[in-house]
Amino acid sequence: MSSDAELQGDLSPSRVRDAVLLRDVVFRYGKREPVLRIPELRIGLGESVFLYGPSGSGKSTLLSLVAGVLQSTAGTVQVLDQAFDKASAATRDRVRGSRMGYVFQSFNLIPYLSVRQNILLPCELYRERLRHMREGSLHAEVERLAQRLDISALLDERPSTLSVGQQQRVAIARALIGYPALLIADEPTSSLDANRRDEFVALLLEMVEEARQQGNATTLLYVSHDMGLASHFSRTLSLSEINQASQPEGGRAAA
Question: Which stretches make up the ABC transporter domain (predicted)?
Answer without folding.
Answer: 20-255
